[in-house]
Amino acid sequence: MSGARSLAERSKDLRMMAIIGSRLASPDRRPRRRVLAAALIALLAGLPGAARAEKAEIAIAKQFSIAFLPLIVMERDRLIEKHARDAGLPEVKVNWLTFSGPDTMISSLLSGSADVAAAGIPGALIVWARTRGSRQAVKGIAAIGAVPLYLVTRDPAIASVRDFKDTDRIATPGGKGTINAVLLQMAVAQTLGQASVSRFDPLLFSMGQPDATTAMLAGIDTVKSVVSTPPFQDQLLAVPGMRRLFSSFAVMGGPHSYANVLATTRFHDENPKLFGAIVAALKEAEATIAADPRGAIAGWIAATGSKLPLAVAARVLDEPGTNWSLTPQNVMTFADFMARTGMIASAPASWHDLYFPEAVSDRPGG
């Protein structure tokens, strides 16, 4: 079997340990005892009984948006704990962390304060490119949240992307590497030409989605436009005077994954059963949402304490193509664009390069 040591291999190791042990005991082998002892330790480490215990406590980082609905379902239904028990692991404690922006999500993963984190596809591509080949290489467990993002404005002088002036400002939840900012660049390139791809970069300023929504609704003069995510964009569009300038599904030519659920290679390799439990939990959450998406959104409202009516929060379902599949969708479109504009050195040869194989390798991703 792949990944398992044969009886012959284990017997060979035991014979070698016996030989090393006899030589360590021999009085005429003193100069070589340290080398022999090191070899014995290495052999012992390779035996099944000497395997490193898997983590008993993990932290998972997520954000507020409905795009992260599978993680909300996993937390509510304690799915990781359930599948960890099914895998024969001792009780696993799962700590859920919620951040307002993607930068802190990835930082938490690289620092080890989170074991799993969900980040927008562009951010996931950037950290993949920076860490590949290292022990801390970051890859996707799965994609989540094929939901549209809208550029929303309340400025009466702006009817399209062409109308923004150098004095205007656009809120996004982070810097240039956020999915919001990259989608805006793509829309600008399509509307004004590739040479103008970075033209709006100076207009961007960082503000978390809940805060940007509050500022837009309050009429704060410095916040008149935002590249928003569901349900915040739907909350804005329910107010007279708010207008949608584009949908990211139109920019991308169809539905696209919003985020990747990420882990380091080290976590993947050192915790195979726990990693498998996370994959199983993601798949169960995917099935739960597909069976009753409106009910899952009602669960998001309850879990986050949102004051939004279900009728507003569920408007994301009105956009054709919205889904919470784990299958990567239009990920390579992001990768190719980011490689052309220098955000990453080169695009992966295939979307498979971006993901661990357990959850999505057999799916028709793209």
UniProtKB/TrEMBL annotation:
Residues 93-296 form the SsuA/THI5-like domain. SUPFAM superfamilies: Periplasmic binding protein-like II (SSF53850). Coiled coil: none annotated. InterPro entries: SsuA/THI5 (IPR015168). This is ABC transporter substrate-binding protein. It comes from Methylobacterium mesophilicum SR1.6/6.
